[in-house]
User: Fold these one by one.
Assistant:
Number 1:
Amino acid sequence: FRLVEEVCAAALRVHPYHHETIGDVCDLETISREQLWHHYETHYGPNNAIAVAAGDFETSRMLERIEELFGLLPARSVPPQVLRPEPPQRGERRVNLEGPGNTAYLQVAYHAPAAGDPDFIPMTVLTTILTGAVGMNLFSSSPPNRSSRLYRALVESGLAVSLSGSMPAMLDPYLYQVSATVRAGNNPSQVEEAMDREIDRVLEQPISEAELETAIKQTKAQFAYSSESVTNQGFWLGYSAIVADTGWFESFLERVEAVTVQDVQRVAQAHLRRSNRTVGHYLAQGGGNR
């Protein structure tokens, strides 16, 4: 977790995504009750929230009930959002950490498009090819895809014991992250070199139509799984309204089906450049857990 924090902070220097959602440890240790209450009074108002209703109900009655429950809540004077776009990265950044434990780790983060960017859907299919289909919110997880390119290159080869990838759908450009747990006897540099060979391959050689078809099916299946319950559908409608609009959720499958081989190679060449990434190595020094 330390390595993930350090890599994200190094990759995002200007945008507020640089900071953890709940702040740094020093913030938690020094914030006062008055400051917490001021934050609540400022931001937690009905005019800064989205109400989502999903399920079997009568719409008119549901709207009446929402009005009954929330209609008397006062609006807040919400300050305007501070817009600090992350500037383009102009060279690879590296983070090296040493600490306790017996396991080394590799973390690589590429700058990735925002949810509303036309590149996001082709990038989602590309991440399925490289690390497997995963959910697209910050809380999603799924088992590793043993057919993905990087799993075969890193785990099946014996260089790493586990691999995962993530690219959450966010309002502003965020990160595509690849994490690997290094097998004992190897080091992060060896894993990084093997990963780079696979990344170079997808940059230089178009994927096959068969691989694209498989990736699209896997992406659609993961999306269907993550939105099969009424609760998850409600979550996705609200989440989509935050990061793009509700149509983003409703048109997701259609847009995934429209991705082409050329789209995948285009976004790979645009976003998976070495100059667009931050690489982190965690070197264990023994003597306990991380």
Number 2:
Amino acid sequence: MQLVQGRLKKVTAEFESNGSFAMTYKGQKSDKGLVSGLLGWDPGDPRIPYSLEEAQRQGIDVVFEIKKFKADHPNTVRITLIDEFDEKVELTALSVGGGMVEIVEINGFACSVAGDFYELFVFFKDSEKELMDDVKKNLESMGVDIQYSHFSKVDNRGLINIKTEKPVPDTTVMELKKLNKVTQVKQVAPVLPVISRRSSEVPFRTASKMLEIARENHMQLWEIATFYEAGRSGWSKEEVFSKMKQIATIMTSSVQTGLDGKMKMEGILRPQSMLIGKAEEKGTLIPVGAINTVISWAMAVLEVNSSMGIVVAAPTAGSCSVLPGAVLGTAEPWVLVMMRRPKHYLRQVV
């Protein structure tokens, strides 16, 4: 965990009693997901189902509690971290869909951290906003490209949150710690695959504008999709293709895993997606072509998701079967071709 210096000793996660987490965090495995993140595991790590056991093995005391407290969002969690040196960090975070989490409070200070920037937190024993100007001037004089900055205060304490595209060098962090009234400086790395940029500009925001640009520039759908993603990310066309191939590979793998039917699902349900294909082979299912494939592939991904397998949370984790089912299922005869030629997948998605 990047916000504490030492090894984690205790983690307490509190869910608001009237919020969605209170009744669903165990069934939806939010507890395992949260702990795996604190352990530093990647979202695609196959060890995630065993994160609670690993935390126990590492001597980390993990506690989940349901409490009454003020929460403006239904998916709110308050997290208290204590490390081996008894340093305490208190966070308030929101689950905002699509596998995304936003930290909205740190040690009582308002903030907005979505994992799409390098985040620098400078804590002060003063609440004068002029301190932010001093910090920004110091950083800029050291060559730091500041994307955004935010000042927050609580009583006579202040927090300056600086967002950057690249990590602030350790030597610069050490210089900041020497500034008058600075009590702590912490830096957190991004976790999203695409880092946001102040100068990022997407070429269109509506379907009509997309079609207009495509007509004017004689672009096919895969080209306009690549054009958009390159503008949003700052990546090259080749990098966009590589990422799309990676995403398509994970989606295809989740379909195949589901159709194999060897996952362990909790509760009374068992894998059933493969039964559609078997019924088709026996001739006991109405032959409706691609629709049966779409249904079975969508079911397969949902079953993998239910068994804590690896899926792509697009557009959200709950609807992760839509794209693999509708797009890959419809294009079943060309799936292998699309894996080799990502532009076809881009065109299908658009």
Number 3:
Amino acid sequence: VEEAAMQMDLLGHNFFVFANDNTNKVNVLYKRRDGNFGLIEPEF
């Protein structure tokens, strides 16, 4: 997740879709209006 946050900031994106190495699932990291990050972990 930390790597995804760094990549998202470097690219200047508001969200970043990535494969989570810890869970082996696709996650979405996004920048919240309060400046913090949110993490979506979909359940299929």
Number 4:
Amino acid sequence: MNDIENTAIGCFCTLIDEWRGNSEGEIIEDYDMQYVVRLSSGYEITVNRDDVVVCN
């Protein structure tokens, strides 16, 4: 895979809309138009790129 495609993996992020009271997490996978995010609670969810703010 191209390194440019994976730049968000490992970055922390904030969900625009909370999920079950959780909004902070880390991007662990990048699937084209979606991310898999591991929330601070330990849950892993799939979200659209437009639904998260990636922190640098």
